[in-house]
Design a protein that fits this description.
EC 2.7.9.1 (chains A, B); TIM Barrel; eight-stranded parallel barrel; D-amino Acid Aminotransferase, Chain A, domain 1; 35 helices; Glucose Oxidase, domain 1; eight-stranded mixed β-sheet
């Protein structure tokens, strides 16, 4: 089997085999772009190597040798001999772009002898700069000798010789090399002098880097499979560091933060490779190149257009200019902010490049969530103290406590604190700390620096290159305008404007994104599933309607009992020892609820609103601390001991499996009757005032047909009486049930006979199906994830094999006895895009989620319909 | 539709329509036995009456009239006219015998005028005795005027006239009648003088009595459907109270306590109707009749044989002798003790009357449970103080506290106390108190008294007619040989010998019932399901093997950690803060467990033993009271505050859904490894000593395939190492999993790939499926049962529609990927006869239950196979 493809043998469709980078290098070669010659070792070769316990097959060695010979022929240079020296880069390249995650070695092929010849052919400072870089990268990637150790040596010589490395003499350069070698020796490592040994060792190291820790973290974060492997690209070097007419840079064909159709990039003159991305020197903007190297700039403009037109998407292009000649080293679909992604997609639709459906599939639900990311409350912004301004590298707004290392970020995050990672620059080692941070701030690096790229990918807000900040990582302080902040100080970061505030600021949600509205309207047209909201307070209900909810899928009534006055009446009711106190409390709660429902129904209007009757066990409303009990005793004119005794009587060993839901409605019918009375009295009043309303009453925790019949009949009697007393023409209403117990799923055909609608409560259903208490899984879930026993939290993403199977069974059974009933999902996973395809397949009518997840869910529903995602049929 | 059948129109197959009593009266009439003429009003007529809100249809009235005319013709007497007076009895008779539960009225047709004529035709004392009884029964049954009020009146006259009622003069008799009438008046009721009105009213009352409270309790207790209704038998009276040559009695064709083939019965001379059953006068044994009325006796012997041969079963026959002539009033299959049922069935097989299979179906699993009822420990009996001796009315042995009323029995039972009901005599009103009592003692009444019959039916031990006891229900005391006991005093009752002890005695289980062995061996031959035991201590394991378990289905290992020394080490392990303490504790627990398993495996031998690894959450092993914590702190040399803190950290909101089962085995693999090491080290030792062993390791609470793989692989490594180190030829063993979570059921096909066996844990599965915590359902389950929402406790009898459906699904899926795997049921319902048919149908291989339920389960398995019970197919 062919394990190596030269760039002129492949194309962009071969990403599985050649990785993204290799496939695009091949595609560009085929397009006739100036790509330095090279070849790609396949991902298959990588996986074979890893699966054979890192055994490098003889056949692969031979194929590499042949490819090197061919490269020598193509370039007219020699890798093995000493004249007309061919150096190569060795770079990883997986199917999915993983920026900074994998390893790169440049200038490979140099050794003590060849560097002298190379110095003669070019200049000593350039040749030794290359050699030094090779040794450093090789040491780092292959042997794990940290970059910092090499940097320290170099800095020492800079101090001793009192000049920058590019001005070092030959002798001085050789001293650096000597010191680098001593570093290798000290670590008992050998820098190989044989170019072929360098090459094979580097290839192995790239292969192995597929499994390094930061690669694993990134894959976990982005759900990238572990068995893809990485390809290895071996490419003849061109040198951006070969003098003043050389440069290296990165540019996007559009602005990756806003989507604006304007070249957006940066370059460093006389620099090599990763200098731009690593953010070590702050680069110049791409338009400066026009003055400096006008021919190369003009060529770049042309090639950038060719590439964007060819790929029909914004491109992220790496280039190098060697003595005035432009080379393209890489292109890929550029990472972008959610807003940019949206704007670009709509622009491309508008200019006819892509269709609306294509545009829909280019935006992820996560991006939509970012688009409604919080911004700082404009009211607070006016008076907030500005600390500094930097580059608006990734939009969003967040407050938190300063931390200076990834480790501290993780530690404080685990303690439940909100942290903001502040660093000179970030590196791939920081990835875990970045994941848990609310925001990222760097004092160095540009819009394409590591921090900026990763933050945009994660949707975390980021201000980069904020040079006003003096970050001292040793003393763990940041100084700005003479003021010093330490770990734990609170700041607020606005990634959209690049502003950092010295205060904790309130955030609000933006709601008027016209482009987003356009996209979501397209999504709604495609969607088979509707989206409702889980909301009960007026603010959330309004937001839900604004975000395009087709109704309310879950309004929880118990939340209304927690206000100060209400909780007292609720407690009076629970602790009542005679009929009078019970009825007094009940009447007062009725008054409260009536007022609540009036405003809720008024807000939601003619759209349906599912109102769930009281669900939690009674003891959840009672106090536990002696002081509150004392106070309550006074308020209720009871003995504290009596209250303590009653609380003890209500105690449950497993409250989740206890006296709650419809079980309460059956043992004490008056509470549900009060709630329904409150709902319908309000609804009747609103109807009389000319409003339309559509209440849907949901009975929770039904396990058995007779429970449903009992509660439903009791409620219907109450409703009938209210209508009769009112002389209002009865408006349409429904009575349905929550399906949240395995038994309800298995007997759904029976339940469906008595229910106008079903709504799956996936939270409780997941708890019962797994036997997991959400309150207690913290003790083993982290270990389960670590061991790969659970790859996803089943409370966030539907467990299709277990809970999903129960849902499929229930829908099928329900449709047997009640074919047209409305069936929804109102648990946490209702708003999860990964689960939405499954619900569509299962035959559900709508999903319901928190108001702020509605836009993402609408998109996901549109996409699910477009993909018509085939769910692996799990046989019953 | 025909609503009335005369006795010569029906037969014994018509029990649905005519009730058991009516069908048998018809059958006996057809056989030519001397049955007084009469007719039966059908159960259909009863249900129609009840469903039409007690409306007595005109058509039924007309049919009754016609039947009465025909009866007048048949008997040559007149019901309506005053000469040659025809009196009738009106008696209920449902399909299933419900002794004492329904109502009877005798002597119907008498009134003020006719009684005088009747007195002329017979004797005044006899005629008025009949009239008085009629008024009393009529008042009681129709108007609910209590018998006691009539009795008080009668007793007053007895005192005033200083003689027994049968010696009252005509005038005196009339005074009694007058007083009775005043009692009616006082209650604003009217005793009708019109015989037809009496008849119709009585028929209605019998119809209505189908729904009286004690009938409902009885039906609930015996699972008799509520929609059967009762028939009404109207029969011409014959008089056992018409003089010295008259008598009434009840006899069994065999001894209902032992099964001995010998007439067993009692009679009262010159008495009527319910006198014998009610136990008011202590009757004479049937053999005394031989001297008194030899012709009638000899006739009875003949008829008894005819009836037993005809019905192929022991008969319970009611008879009346009127002036020396024998009449048979009723026959039915006699209620009997379990031992008698068994002995009779085997006798009937031995003499060729019935087949082995018929015999198997005649014994209920409940009877088998009674056969292994406890007896008092013979060692204690020698020194126990005997209080009194009475009739051995229902076998068994029990200790408890004396109560004197059914109400107190219920109250104390609800407080968790064991009670023994002590009464002069019991009546149907006492039924609820009898149900909750450990034993029943009466000072009056014989072997066929209400107390005796009901106790035998329920399998409750009973000593009847213990005349040494003077029970004073007013003062709530019982006096015996000068000593007085009050409520709460402890006694022990041996229903097999009739002895009452004044002490609390230990009970033991009998094991050597040869007849039972025979029957169960027949059952095993028929059975499709095997029976295993849930047992872990040596005593229970031995008992299980003796009772014929085919293996151990569930040995719980956590029970072994609760001994004083063990719990300390377990606590040391849980609270260990360093590796050393953990390992020390683990090693000590290993030593304990090794010893445990050695003896367990030795006891069970070559039969398979399923050993479940540690299941409960760790906090269950920790103390909660401050004193024990203090003590533990000293033992472990830790600060009490530290222990309190650790306990708090281990606290769980819903322990049932928490960190337990295989979740423990995954987060801390060493505990399961220790257990498996203990099991296999012991097993290897036993193998070396020449024993056969077959351990089956069961992993609890598996929800996900990868959990099973993870734990299984870890255990297999440990086992492999032990075998390698031992040089023993590996013996067969299995590793399987408990199926006790809905997710395990829904993914059983995946789990089955990695499991050698499955065992359904129906307790937890029921908890999760319903979302019921067994610890907490007490708060609503009683109300659910009262409202008929749940008719059975799903933890006692399998919920077929929900939990059962999950089990069916799981078995089907499991067999898809692992067709030959062994599948068992080890939860509480595993031993429930009602559930066993379902498990057979579902394709389960064995059920497992506590050792003492094994015999009953073996029978149930045999019966299930014979019945090949069709389970209503619940569509998926």
């Amino acid at each position: 089997m062919k394990q190596i493809y030269h760039f002129n043998e492949g194309n962009t469709t071969m990403k599985d085999l050649l990785g993204g980078k290799g496939a695009n290098l091949a595609e560009m070669t085929q397009l006739g772009l100036p790509v330095p010659a090279g070849f790609t070792i396949t991902t298959t070769a990588c996986m074979q190597f890893l699966q054979q316990d890192d055994y490098f097959e003889q056949s692969l060695k031979e194929e590499v040798l042949k490819a090197i010979y061919r490269l020598e022929t193509e370039t007219g240079k020699s890798f093995l001999a000493d004249s007309s020296i061919l150096l190569v880069s060795v770079r990883s390249g997986a199917k999915f772009s993983m920026p900074g995650m994998m390893d790169t070695i440049l200038n490979l092929g140099l050794n003590d002898k060849k560097v002298r010849d190379f110095a003669r052919l070019t200049t000593p400072s350039f040749a030794y700069d290359c050699y030094r870089r090779l040794m450093q990268m090789f040491g780092d990637v292959v042997y794990g000798i940290s970059k910092e150790q090499f940097d320290q040596i170099l800095q020492k010589f800079e101090t001793t010789f009192d000049k920058a490395p590019s001005y070092f003499s030959l002798a001085e350069q050789q001293e650096v090399i000597k010191a680098y070698k001593q570093l290798f020796d000290k670590q008992h490592k050998n820098f190989p002098q044989d170019p072929l040994e360098q090459l094979f060792t580097a290839i192995k190291a790239v292969f192995q880097s597929w499994n390094n820790e930061r690669a694993q973290v990134y894959r976990n974060l982005h759900d990238i499979p572990f068995d893809l492997g990485t390809a290895v690209n071996v490419q003849s070097m061109v040198f951006g560091n070969s003098g003043e007419k050389s440069a290296t840079g990165v540019a996007f064909t559009r602005n990756p933060a806003t989507g604006e159709k304007k070249l957006f990039g940066e370059f460093l003159p006389n620099a090599q490779g990763e200098d731009v991305v690593a953010g070590i020197r702050t680069p110049q903007t791409i338009d400066k190149l026009k003055q400096l190297l006008p021919v190369a700039y003009s060529d770049f403009i042309d090639y950038a257009k060719i590439l964007e037109d060819h790929y029909k998407d914004m491109q992220d292009i790496e280039f190098t200019i060697e003595n005035g000649k432009l080379y393209i080293l890489q292109t890929r679909s550029g990472k972008r902010t959610a807003q940019a992604a949206l704007n670009i997609a709509l622009d491309l639709v508008d200019d006819g490049t892509i269709t609306k459906k294509e545009a829909l599939l280019r935006i992820t639900p996560t991006m939509v969530e970012q688009l409604i990311h919080p911004i700082f409350d404009p009211a607070e912004l006016k008076s907030a103290k500005v600390l500094a301004k930097g580059l608006p590298a990734s939009p969003g707004a967040a407050s938190g406590q300063i931390v200076f290392t990834a480790e501290r970020a993780k530690e404080l995050h685990e303690e439940g604190k909100k942290v903001i990672l502040v660093r000179q620059e970030t590196s791939p080692e920081d990835i875990e700390g970045m994941v848990v941070s609310e925001a990222i701030v760097t004092s160095r690096g540009g819009m394409t620096s590591h921090a900026a790229v990763v933050a945009r990918g994660m949707g975390t807000c980021c201000v980069a290159g904020c040079e006003e900040l003096i970050v001292n990582e040793t003393t763990q302080t940041v100084t700005c305008k003479g003021q010093t902040l330490i770990e734990g100080s609170t700041i607020s970061v606005d990634g959209t404007t690049g502003t950092i505030y010295q205060a904790e600021l309130k955030t609000v949600r933006p709601t008027d994104n016209q482009n987003l509205q356009r996209l979501l309207n397209w999504a709604d047209k495609e969607a088979k599933l509707m989206v409702r909201a889980n909301a009960e307070n007026i603010q959330d209900l309004s937001a839900a309607i604004n975000f395009g909810a087709s109704g309310i899928g879950l309004a929880r009534t118990e939340h209304m009992f927690f206000g100060e006055k209400r909780i007292l009446e609720m407690r009076r009711l629970i602790l009542a020892e005679d009929e009078t106190s019970f009825e007094v409390a009940l009447q007062r709660l009725l008054d409260f609820q009536q007022d609540d429902f009036y405003h809720m129904l008024q807000t939601v209007g003619e759209k349906p609103m599912v109102i769930r009757l009281l669900d939690p066990p009674m003891h959840e409303f009672l106090p536990t601390d002696p002081q509150t009990i004392q106070q309550l005793a006074k308020q209720l004119e009871k003995a504290p001991e009596q209250i303590t005794k009653q609380i003890a009587q209500l105690h449950e060993t497993n409250p989740m499996l206890g006296h709650r839901g419809c079980r309460l409605g059956i043992t004490e019918a008056r509470i549900y009757q009060m709630q329904v009375k409150a709902i319908f009295t309000s609804a009747i009043k609103l109807t009389q005032a000319g409003y339309s309303v559509k209440p849907e009453i949901m009975i929770p925790l039904v396990a058995e047909e007779k429970e449903l019949i009992e509660v439903k009949n009791s409620l219907l009697r109450t409703i009938k009486n209210l209508f009769e007393a009112s002389n209002v023409e009865p408006f349409p209403f429904e009575i349905g049930t929550m399906i949240e117990l395995p038994r309800a799923c298995m007997t759904a055909d029976r339940l469906a006979k008595h229910a106008d609608f079903f709504s799956f409560g996936t939270n409780d259903l997941t708890q019962m199906t797994y036997g997991f208490s959400r309150d207690d899984i913290g003790k083993f879930l982290p270990i389960y994830k670590e061991k790969g026993i659970l790859t996803q939290d089943p409370f966030q993403t539907l467990d299709q094999a277990g809970v999903g199977k129960l849902i499929q069974t229930a829908v099928k059974k329900a449709r047997q006895t009640n074919p047209n009933m409305m069936i929804g999902v109102c648990g946490e996973v209702g708003g999860d895009p990964n689960s939405i395809s499954f619900f569509q397949q299962a035959g559900v009518d709508y999903v319901s989620c928190s108001a702020y997840r509605i836009p993402a869910a609408r998109l996901a529903c549109g996409q699910a319909a477009l993909n018509d995602c085939r769910i692996a049929e799990i046989a019953l």
